Amino acid sequence: MFRFKLVVVDYETETYGVNISKVKRAINSNTVALVGSYPNFPHGAIDDIEALSDLAVKHNIGLHVDACLGGLLACFYSHSNANIKTPKFDFLLPGVTTISSDLHKYGLAPKGVSYLLYRSKELRKQQYFIYPRWMGGIYPSPTIAGSRSAALMVCAYVIMLNKGKNFYAKQARDIHEAIEKIKEFSAKNFKELKIIGDPQICIVAFTGEKSSIIYDLMSKKGWHLNLISNPIGFSICINTANISMVNKKMCSDLKECYEAVRNFFNNKIYNFGIFVLFVL
Is 47 inside a domain boundary? Predict the structure, then answer.
């Protein structure tokens, strides 16, 4: 619609966050904005928003932070009284111009409600759509999409007002603690199953040669995990609905499935070795 060309850059192979060096090389005189994730959905990886902010300021271009998944959690970390330290991603960084987040996720609002924050009123003015040549008169709309029901927004407002800051702060703290518990447990118990990057917000992703089999065994135990293809593995999105079960059974079930797969393949190799020896 706007005749923009989308330029996609690779991610860091270790962190699975954006490769800042490649972003630098991709910027030219036609670049209008940068986009970073906080976090991304497949791996729960956080882009280096501070570095992107520096580039946006240097080149006088916009920076949009896609915090649709975990933004509402991250913004409450400072209110959780748990001294949770995560990288900056909001308007405290001078280069950030817009931030988006979904209220139907960790806001617990009905699906279909998101918010878009602007650094200034001047920027926000550009989002409105006005068509003056309609035969019915001037047609204004808050966005290009046209008119929408306000019912979902009213529901979201009432729900969040009812839950209050303390609830959302506790939700953020509990989910962060669950992630740290999984990371610590995995480091001690899994050699062939690796956590991707350094997840901090709401998603933990695993990869390994036999991770797809572990995924199948976890599914039989009732876990609804997300398959990922690059790299091969699976992830879990921790939320208010499943955090109780995550704290009770996630680590023990994962270890049981991991050991079952490991023992199965070790025994297969052992038996195959005996068979070869017998034939010889």
Answer: no
CB 65 within 8 A of CB 96: yes
pLDDT of residue 143: 82
Q: What are phi and psi of 194, to 5 degrees?
A: -115, 140
User: What residue ranges in the chain does DSSP mark as E strands?
Assistant: 33-37, 62-66, 98-102, 114-118, 129-131, 139-141, 194-195, 203-207, 226-229, 232-237
User: Which tokens belong to 79?
Assistant: 């209110």
pLDDT-derived band at 271 (thresholds 50, 70, 90) equals low
The answer to whether residue 275 scores a pLDDT higher than 70 is: no
In degrees, rounded to 5, the angle at the alpha carbon of residue 134 between the alpha carbons of residues 132 and 135 is 130
The residue ranges of DSSP E strands in 112-188, in sequence order, are: 114-118, 129-131, 139-141
Residue 144 binned pLDDT confidence (cut-offs 50, 70, 90): confident
Q: How far apart are CA 216 and CA 257, in angstroms?
A: 9
pLDDT of 274 reads 46
User: Is residue 237, in this structure, part of any structural domain at all?
Assistant: yes
For the packed helices 251-279 and 151-189, what is the interaxial angle rounded to 10 degrees? 50
pLDDT at residue 254 above 90? yes
Predicted local confidence at residue 81, as pLDDT: 63
Give the total number of structural domains in the chain. 1
DSSP state of 46: P
CATH of the domain at 243: 3.90.1150.10
Count of residues for the chain?
280
Domain limits for position 250 = 164-279
By three-state DSSP, how is residue 63 classified? strand
Is 17 among the domain residues? no
Of 69, 78, 83, nearest in space to 38 by CA: 69
Residue 263 lies in a domain: yes
* pTM of the full structure: 0.87
